[in-house]
Design brief:
Layout lengths: L48 H20 L7 H24 L8 H29 L17 H11 L1 H6 L3 H12 L11 H6 L1 H9 L2 H7 L2 H21 L6 H4 L13 H22 L15 H17 L11 H18 L2 H11 L11 H20 L3
Amino acid sequence: MTSMVLRTHTREARVPEMFDASPSPGQTRAPTPPAAQPVPERSAKQRDSFFDNAKYLAIVLVAMGHSWEALYADSRVLRSLYIFVYTFHMPAFIIISGYFSRSFDMRPDRLKRLITGVAVPYVIFETVYSLFRDHFGQDGETGITLLDPYFLSWFLAALFVWRLTTPLWKVVRRPLPLALAIAMLATVSPAISNDLDFQRLLQFLPCFVLGLCLKPEHFRMVRTRAMRIASVPIVAGALAVAWLVVPHIDFGWFYRRDAAQEMGAPWWTGPLMTLALFACSVVLTACFLAWVPGRRMWFTSLGAGTICGYLLHGFVLKYTRWEGWYDAHWLHSPLGALLVTAFAVTVVTLLCTAPVRRVFRCVMEPKMEWAFKQDPAQQARERQHGERKQPVREKAGV
């Protein structure tokens, strides 16, 4: 239940708050100019290249993993890569989401952004996905139900619930052990309702809570040369283990959708697999982050559009499966797998670009001013800010 730019935080780049890569408390900022000099509005809030790079690379891994689902049955190598990537790609995405949810409280403006940036997109995409499936699909499901997330929309439903619980995790004494205990109990509780994909929501909960617990210095710790060197044998060992266990393991463990009993396993394996997968996902996420560049790259700006890439690539993926694109025999070969992977990377990259974000901003983060009361505190802050700026504007001759 999913990765997460030193550039101007413009209106064009605004995306749902779930992946805001603005500098976090404790990160280095440029010194504040003297009060007599007007500060350009666009320099007040800059994005962090590292997190935008991480988000883009994580969403690329998500798209790659999805593209292999129709091919891995023919290749042990591809199945091994599949479970290796699935061990950490969504956990990395969720950890970053939790990290940027640390400041969430029940303040009216933040609740408004939670509704417009998460709840409304969930309703829209769950509806559109259901209609898309009914028209093109062959999954045997029909109709629209907002309580049963279809395909990728589960993440929005989970993020809405996780973020609402953020104030609770900030006041409990041991948030991460508590979240792990809840996830472990979920794996032995097949009676948990499927509404809002609740089983997956609970089993991925520790990743979100871990993100809430992290501080900027934790990310600096994994971005060292020593960590990059150490990550090489760790990743090699993880790939070797994946190769060894892939014929014997149920892939359902990596999806976190079912309790142990629903997968035909003894109940006690659920808590053990919860701890094992969480440990593996944290270690591999650290290895992944160790190699994420911190400087501006050609793909850095795409990190602002990862939610577009995540939600929209599902339509391409499902359509190609339903229309039989994978039926070609030559695709089920090493060269075919490489071409499919390259296609998936290209598609998700294009879907993260600024033109796509502009087109879908109306559904990704609608303003909906008509639906909300005006916040008196926010209006007072804006008036006070305007009063402070006026003398500066006059002095500057504006």
